[in-house]
Specification:
Layout lengths: L2 H18 L16 E6 L4 E6 L14 H10 L35 E2 L7 E2 L23 E10 L8 H14 L8 E7 L2 E7 L12 H12 L14 E2 L2 E2 L2 E10 L16 E9 L3 E8 L25
Antiparallel strand pairs: 1-2, 3-4, 5-7, 5-10, 6-7, 8-9, 10-11, 11-12
The protein binds 2-acetamido-2-deoxy-beta-D-glucopyranose (5 copies).
One 2-acetamido-2-deoxy-beta-D-glucopyranose binds next to loops.
Keywords: Disulfide bond, Glycoprotein, Membrane, Signal, Transmembrane, Transmembrane helix
Family: Belongs to the EPCAM family.
Protein name: Tumor-associated calcium signal transducer 2
Amino acid sequence: MARGQVLALPVLLLLLEAVTGSEAAQDNCTCPTNKMTMCSWDSQSGRCRCKAIGTNHEVNCSTLTSKCLLLKARMQRPKGGRSLVRPSEHAIVDNDGLYDPDCDREGRFKARQCNQTSVCWCVNSVGVRRTDKGDQNLLCDELVRTHQILIELRHRPAARAFNHTDLDAELRRLFRERYLLHPRFLAAVHYEEPTIQIELQQNASQKAPGDVDIADAAYYFERDIKGESLFSGPRSFDVSVRGEPLLVERTLIYYLDEKPPQFSMKRLTAGLIAVIVVVVVALVAGVAVLVITNRRKSGKYKKVEIKELGELNKEPSL
Ligand SMILES: *[C@@H]1O[C@H](CO)[C@@H](O)[C@H](O)[C@H]1NC(C)=O
Ligand SMILES: *[C@@H]1O[C@H](CO)[C@@H](O)[C@H](O)[C@H]1NC(C)=O
Ligand SMILES: *[C@@H]1O[C@H](CO)[C@@H](O)[C@H](O)[C@H]1NC(C)=O
Ligand SMILES: *[C@@H]1O[C@H](CO)[C@@H](O)[C@H](O)[C@H]1NC(C)=O
Ligand SMILES: *[C@@H]1O[C@H](CO)[C@@H](O)[C@H](O)[C@H]1NC(C)=O
C-alpha cells in the first residue's frame, strides 16, 4: 500500500505547523492518552488536534486510542533492540501481535490482515490471528469479538501476601481511573499468591458507544507492565496495595473469542474445537503460545484449559 508516501506530506506539514506554531505556545498541545501522536493547533477551531502516527486518523485524547492504531504507530518506528525469543517449534502460531495492521474508519482492526504482504489471515477484535494464513483470496466475513480477556500476573515476593480485598480495590481503581474502563467490564480479580488474575468481560451487546473496549484497556495495561507507557506526560505506572508496591514478574494474557478460532490442525480434529492464542508478556521478550480448550455446548467457552508451550504435544483433556 502506497499510503506511506501519500501520508508523508501531511505529516510534514503537521510537523512544520507544530514547529512554527510554537510562537502561539500559549498552551502545549499534546495528547495525554496517547504519546504516539502528532498534535497541532487547528487555527479554525482553535483546538489541539492529534493524529495517530502512521495514519491520518484523528484520535480522541480524552479516551484511549484503539489498539489497531497503536500497533500501526508502533510499526512506524525503526526497530529497536527489542529481541524476541524464537518460539518453540511446537508452537503453532508465531504471532505475538506485532505486525503492521489495517485499521477501519473507527480505528478498529479489519477482520482480514495481510501485514502489508500477500499473506493474509483473519484476526479477532484484539488483532490476534484466529485462522491459518492464506493468500489474498482469503475471506474473513466478520470481525469476531474477543469477549473475555484474562490477564494473569505473577508478582515478586512481597513481605507478605497482599490482602485480596485491597488488591481487588486497587486494581479496579487502576482500570477505572487510568484506563477509563467502565467498572462493569472488570468481572473479577482472583488471587492466590503469587498469581493475580484480572478478568475482563465485554460482549458486543454490553458495550455502549463511547465505552472503552477491553481490548484497548488490556493493551494499555500490557504496555504499562512492559514499562512502555502510552500516556504522555508524567503519569507513571505504579500500583501499590497499602503501601506495598506491586512488582510484576511475568504476565500472560489469554484472549477468548465469541466464536472458536479456525485453525486447521489434523492432529487436533475430532472433538477439539477451540484454540486460543495467548500472548506472554515477559519483561524482556514476547512469546506466543497456544492454549487448547474444549468447547461447551453453549458455543461459548466457559472453562479454559491452559496448556503452556512445553505441553502442546499432549492431547487436550476435558
Ligand atoms: C504545558 O504547559 C504548562 C504551562 O503552560 C507547563 O507547566 C507544563 O509543564 C507543560 N507540559 C508539557 C508536557 O510540556
Ligand atoms: C509482518 O511483517 C514484519 C515486517 O516485514 C515482520 O517483522 C513480522 O514478523 C510480520 N508479522 C507477521 C505476523 O507475519
Ligand atoms: C483485608 O482488608 C480488609 C480491609 O480493607 C479487612 O476488612 C479484611 O479483614 C482484610 N483481610 C485479611 C485476610 O486480612
Ligand atoms: C453478554 O453478557 C451478558 C452478561 O455476561 C450475558 O447475560 C449476555 O447473554 C451476553 N450476550 C451475548 C450476546 O453473548
Ligand atoms: C471523546 O471521548 C469522550 C469520552 O468517551 C466523549 O465523551 C467525547 O464525546 C469524545 N469526543 C469526540 C469528539 O468524539
